[in-house]
Design a protein that fits this description.
The structure holds three protein chains of three kinds. Chain B is an alpha/beta fold. Chain B is built from twelve helices and twelve strands. In chain B, 33% of the residues lie in helices and 24% in strands. In chain B, strand 11 and strand 12 form a beta hairpin. In chain B, helix 5 packs across helix 7. Classes of the chains: A mainly alpha, B alpha/beta, C alpha/beta. The interface between B and C is large, with 44 and 43 residues.
Chain lengths: 291, 321, 315
């Protein structure tokens, strides 16, 4: 088969994905936050100025100083080092949890949305059942039964996310499946797998990417929350929730631990959210700004 | 005094922050009780022109020059309050898709009442209802009382269009602007609406500006025709003259491109290329890139030539005679 | 050889009798225009003939495949030999695929060997699109260009039958004429049979040799197009012809040829469906549904008085 000679020389090549994401202030902010977070998580112990578990009772509950840039917690541990390690823990749990949730939700949503009928009824019932459990109660029950190990926490969070991903995917798939071009592909003789893979999936992926990006900080918040309640990662591991909990206990003596931890959590949420929104705008072929 | 007098009207749209002309110095008149057809393809500016008569421009649209006088009133000089009374009062408009032009949440009766509240506030409720029933009957709806109670979705396309015309008629406007009123209708319903429009002019002396891309409807309904291309009028003439002896190359091409079952054997004319975009207007004659007769003289904008009651915007010798 | 043989086809959706007893024949290489207004069932009929909408009863043989109850293999053969051009040009193109991917899709689905394929450049050339359109996305194309891509996809597999649903809908006069000329050229060059579904008599007159007029799920008249339109045997056909605005101001018709609205297929009138709007309806029309009468010269009409209308032309 001879390839088309002219190709796309007529129009200028589209700038790379990264450049397009970074074209707006919110996109830049999101990228920076995410990059810094991931780098921090990866480099963890290498960049922490102190051992996050080293005690320094004489200097406990101090504010920012030359030695301890963000101050110390109730046991004299360096707050900055603890927060840096906390980043790794947060992502170690949040990323797999969301990944599993997305994948499971995607598969269930595709099946339910495209095949309809009994498959749809079963999937929707399952999703509704999971969703109707209050997340906290579910977490409590599972963790109490299976213990608070990291894989269990990841699974609990993943399961909590499956219903929302599943429903969004299902709704997206249903509306895309009704569009004439899907009918047209069927009339050309395409089978369901081909249609789902090539025509439905690319058109439902965009809202999912946004949802993923926006749910990552939720996952972080949930696991921090669980740790805060004493259900997830246990002290002395410097999970952000643990640091927050310790900070709350002694907030009258020093507001710094709570302040800094909350700031870090807020920045993480904002950063991922902005990145998600920017990705959505860039990935939709129709709204993308092509120069 | 003509019902509508448009003089040197220029309208621009804001695209990418810069104003681009959609209408260039357009001049047209619609005589008292006359039906003028406005033809052209998408992007030629005919809908913009129709809206401009009532100072109804989409967001980003601005009048950059010229004037519109309707029934003696300078439309652009009206205050917002005067404009409100003017629209629906002296001049009314009907659109292509009556479903989106009628409010789907209100019954027909309610929508008529809303118009009456603005323009006919002094009459009693009973008198207003009488008038509403009367006008619905005039447009040929067989059961006006039922229609008054109906929601738009309960009516057919043809019925909705009649309701639109009734709404436009309520205050006996001197001028009716009809923007593609039959394009979304079946051919048998279309014939009925065209007959209704003709009756409007015959019975009430309403002047009509009939915007359409359908040359057949224009031939059947209109007294005079103006052909538009790229924001300008390229030809105006009496309807018989235009169809019998089109002068402008675009008009000729357009007439040759319309299929007719009576002339099956002839190959349809195809006009190569596409109309110019608003953001990239050519110098000189806008049609020259697609014109089979284009020559060096077409590099500068052709003037509007008047001959024997017609106008043509072209420099070619066979046109200017 | 017939590329469509349909006998007494009915397609009902609950109480809505969209197609209500249609018998139709289309020879290989022939062109047929299926004309009707809204509610006539013409689009449903076209989809039923292609097996896209299941028929309720009747037999349909399209491109040699018995459409009703066809298994997977038969359906694949049907898709290869009979294709549809959609009414909305953009809606039928997968938005995230570029034109070249869209054009090679039919070949990949049916695993057509390279030697039997047209290249992307050749397909674009066939539909008179410049080669650089290959890299564009559907939303970057105009209505006319998207329509041509749709046509290219439909003919890529060299089908025996092409069904076009309102091929000029939404197009300007100049774009429409280009598409009609293109279709005319292609059907004669590639030699495929062509069924055009439209409400526009002028388009049908230009593009097809034979015409079938539908009203409320039934074919009321069929025959050679010039013949039928010059001398209609059915009052509805006559009304359609008279309602059609002629681009000739000298030929102005007196008044609208028919009153009332096209009825809904949910509640069809008794007897002859057209009788409430027919100026010549008799008692027989109100009670007895007319069967299609053979009028000779390849013409058929479902009207009790059809032969009379041929004798003394309707005015």
């Amino acid at each position: 088969m001879t390839a088309v000679a002219a190709g796309r020389t007529a129009s200028a090549p589209r700038p790379g994905l990264l450049r397009r994401v970074a074209a707006t202030p919110s996109g830049v902010f999101g990228l920076v936050v995410v990059v810094v977070l991931v780098a921090t998580a990866l480099l963890g112990p290498l960049i922490a100025p102190h051992d996050p578990n080293a005690l320094d009772i004489d200097h406990r509950l101090e504010g920012p100083s030359g030695t301890y840039w963000l101050g110390t917690d109730n046991l004299g541990r360096d707050l900055l080092s603890r927060l840096i390690l906390g980043a790794r823990i947060a992502l170690e749990i949040a990323v797999p949890a969301v990944a599993i949730g997305v994948l499971a939700g995607l598969l269930l949503g595709l099946a339910a949305g495209y095949l309809g009928g009994k498959v749809d009824t079963v999937v929707v019932t399952v999703l509704d059942a999971v969703q109707s459990f209050p997340a906290v109660v579910l977490a409590l029950a599972v963790l109490a039964l299976l213990g608070g190990s990291t894989p269990t926490i990841v699974l609990v969070i993943a399961v909590a996310f499956v219903p929302s991903f599943g429903r969004v995917t299902r709704a997206s798939v249903q509306s895309v499946s009704r569009l004439p071009f899907v009918d047209a592909e069927r009339n050309l003789g395409a089978g369901p797998l081909r249609i789902i893979w090539r025509h439905v999936l690319p058109n439902v992926v965009s809202p999912l990417i946004v949802l993923t990006a926006m749910n990552l900080p939720s996952a972080v918040a949930v696991e921090s929350g669980l740790a805060f309640l004493g259900l997830g990662v246990q002290p002395p591991t410097p999970d952000w929730g643990v640091v927050l909990s310790d900070g709350f206990d002694r907030i009258r003596d020093s507001p710094w631990p709570v302040l800094f931890t909350c700031t870090v959590l807020a920045l993480t949420t904002l950063g991922f959210t902005f990145l998600g929104e920017r990705l959505r705008d860039v990935l939709d072929v129709r709204t993308a700004e092509v120069r | 005094m003509p019902a509508v007098a448009i003089e040197d009207l220029t309208v621009t749209y804001r695209i990418d922050g810069r104003p681009r002309p959609a209408l260039h110095d357009v001049s047209l008149t619609v005589g008292d009780g006359e039906i003028l057809g406005l033809v052209g393809e998408s992007g030629c500016g005919k809908s913009t022109l129709a809206g401009a008569v009532l100072k109804l421009l989409p967001p980003g649209g601005e009048v950059a020059g010229g004037s519109v006088t309707v029934d003696g009133h300078d439309v652009f000089a009206l205050s917002p309050e005067e404009l409100r009374r003017f629209r629906g009062g002296r001049a009314a408009m009907i659109f292509q898709d009556p479903f989106t032009s009628l409010n789907p949440s209100f019954t027909v009766g309610k929508q008529i009442a809303l118009v009456q509240r603005v323009h006919d506030a002094d009459s009693s409720a009973a008198a207003r209802r009488e008038r509403a029933l009367g006008v619905l009957g005039e447009v040929g709806l067989p059961d006006p009382a039922t229609v008054l109670r109906a929601y738009p979705y309960q009516l057919s396309g043809g019925q909705r269009q009649r309701v639109m015309i009734a709404l436009a008629l309520l205050l006996r406007p001197a001028v009716l602007i009809a923007d593609e009123p039959t394009s979304a209708l079946d051919v048998t319903t279309q014939a009925q609406i065209l007959a209704l429009l003709r009756w409007l002019r015959d019975e009430h002396g309403t002047a009509i500006l009939f915007v359409s891309h359908d040359l057949g409807s224009v031939a059947q309904l209109c007294d005079r025709v103006a052909v538009m291309y790229a924001g300008r009028t390229v030809e105006t003439a009496d309807v018989a003259d235009l169809f019998a002896a089109p002068q402008h190359p675009y008009t000729r091409a357009l007439l040759g491109a319309v299929p007719s079952w009576r002339r099956r054997a002839e190959e349809l004319v195809t006009i190569p290329g596409r109309p110019p975009s608003l953001t990239d207007p050519p110098d000189g004659c806008a049609f020259a890139p697609r014109c089979p007769h284009a020559g060096p003289a077409c590099a500068s904008a052709p003037p509007l030539i008047e001959l024997a009651g017609r106008t043509v915007r072209c420099v070619l010798p066979e046109v200017t005679g | 050889m017939s590329v469509i043989k349909a006998d007494n086809v009915r397609t009902h959706f609950g109480k809505v009798r969209a197609v209500d007893g249609v018998t139709l024949d289309l020879a290989d290489g022939a062109t047929l225009g299926l004309v009707g207004e809204s509610g006539s069932g013409k689009t449903t009929l076209a989809r039923t003939l292609l097996g896209l909408t299941p028929a309720t009863s009747g037999t349909i043989e399209t491109a040699g495949v018995s459409v009703r109850g066809a298994g997977r293999a038969a359906r694949r053969a049907l898709h290869r030999d009979a294709q549809l051009i959609y009414q909305d040009p953009h809606a039928s193109l997968s938005p995230r695929l570029r034109v070249d991917a869209l054009l090679t899709e039919p070949y990949r689905i049916h695993k057509v060997p390279d030697a039997d394929r047209w290249s992307v450049a050749e397909l674009l050339d066939l539909v008179e699109l410049p080669a650089e359109h290959a890299g564009k996305y559907p939303h970057e194309l105009s209505g006319g260009q998207a329509r041509r891509v749709g046509i290219a996809r439909a003919i890529a597999l060299r089908p025996r039958l092409l069904v076009a649903d309102e091929p000029t809908a939404g197009l300007d006069v100049s774009a429409a004429s280009a598409v009609l000329n293109l279709l005319r050229r292609l059907t004669s060059e590639i030699g495929l049979a062509y069924l055009m579904v439209t409400h526009n008599l002028d388009t049908v007159g230009y593009a097809a040799d034979r015409i079938a007029v539908m009203y409320l799920g039934r074919i009321v008249e069929q025959g050679p197009v010039a013949d039928v339109l010059h001398r209609p045997a059915h009052p509805y056909t006559h009304a359609l012809v008279r309602a059609l605005p002629v681009p000739d101001p000298a030929a102005r018709t007196a008044g609208p040829p028919v009153t009332g609205e096209p009825p809904s297929p949910r509640n069809p009138p008794s007897g002859c469906h057209f009788h409430p709007r027919c100026p010549r309806a008799t008692d027989r029309c109100r009670t007895e549904a007319p069967e299609p009468l053979d009028l000779g010269d390849d013409r058929r009409a479902a009207c009790h008085y059809a032969p009379d209308h041929l004798e003394t032309p309707l005015v």
